[in-house]
Amino acid sequence: MRDASKTAFLDQLTGKLRERSAVIGIVGLGYVGLPLMLRYAEAGFRVLGIDIDAAKVEQLNRGESPIRHIATADVARAREQRFEATTDFTRAGEADALVVCVPTPLNAYREPDLSFVLDTADALLPFMRPGQVLSLESTTYPGTTDEELKPRLEARGFVIGQDVFLVFSPEREDPGNPDFHTRTIPKVCGGATPACLEAGLALYGAAIDRVVPVSSTRAAELTKLLENIYRAVNIGLVNEMKIIADRMQIDIHEVIRAAATKPFGFTPYYPGPGLGGHCIPIDPFYLTWKAREYGLHTRFIELAGEINSDMPHWVVGKVVDALNLRGKSVMGSRVLVLGIAYKKDIDDTRESPSVELMELLRDKGAHVDYADPHVPVFPRMRKHRFDLKSVALTPSSIASYDVVLLATAHSAFDYALIREYAPLIVDTRGVYPAALPNIVKA
Predict the structure, then answer these.
(1) Which of 272, 142, 288 is nearest to 218 (CA)?
(2) pLDDT by residue (tens digit) across 121-158?
(3) pTM over 0.85
(4) Which one of 247, 323, 375, 422 has the fewest CB atoms closer than 10 angstroms to its CB?
(5) Domains, the chain, ranges and CATH?
(6) What is residue 281's predicted lDDT score, i.e. its pLDDT?
(7) Residues carrying an active site annotation
């Protein structure tokens, strides 16, 4: 029989989650936190969003979406359903659940930077109370929850699994994917103790169709890394195949389409100008860094990373060669980059290879502009700076460039118009047939 003194907080918490009377606190209202907020509001919970960006908080409280692919109507509906945003961390005690969705980037040495997670934890801890569940969703190396968050809670006098509950549940958002939504994507969850896991299952089971329990927070942390490293390695393979096919004058996209007709044993991955987004270019480094603690060298993963990291340089080489064949130097040439978001039909430019292409071309003396209907003004970025606005695509504007570099294949682009008026197109996404006279595959 369970000791009532050890389960009173757990029973109270799971009861409130079951009855939808719990307050859900979402810390970090970006590409992960905002969809999660919408889902909990839709499920009938009062949601308190906490973010350090005052402008974003004001925008959300007006019922407006700060993210292009998330509809303002959905945010306005959440406001009607008792969602409120704030910059005030002292209000953390109002929440029964605190879900942390903050960035985990790399530092200048390509090592994990947990400053956002740790600063957030340190800002929340003074205002936490018994009976709360704290969930970390930010992608990180195995051991982060146990080694960083657990000691901080214990230093406050909390007993993990008795009066507060600690879980890790990796985010699985896929911005712009119309086929999967927060509710329908299965949620992996690991707890610091069995009671913590029970609290985590209650938290996510109240809003997500399927919750997948694992044995520990470390297993949950490694699950997320495996998912993204699997993709990174396969993309690295197909990028290397692209280079081989190019040298053999074979269209790699034709080959992938043909291979994908095999009904078993093959999953199609597609090449591109490099990796983008917050997860795939970064997550492998979290594991390789942690693996060194165990005396392991992740050769296979690092090789794929080298191939993917080199793709922007390879693409720029194709641009240089294509211009040379037309009697032009890249220095002084006008280059229009199509799409600076890291994937099609969204406005997220984090780690976008398009932006690296722009810098590499600018460094070679090209005059670089961009066109992206989802990013009307070049955003503030930590590593890249351009004072540019998106170019409107008209017959005259397209024709004014020496080369159009197709980097992100947004659905909104008029590809027939671009093909008709662009003197030269370097296509990194396989949009155009290879046989066209003004098309170069990259």
Answers:
(1) 142
(2) 999 999 999 999 999 999 999 999 999 999 999 999 99
(3) yes
(4) 247
(5) 4-215 (3.40.50.720), 235-441 (3.40.50.720)
(6) 84
(7) 279
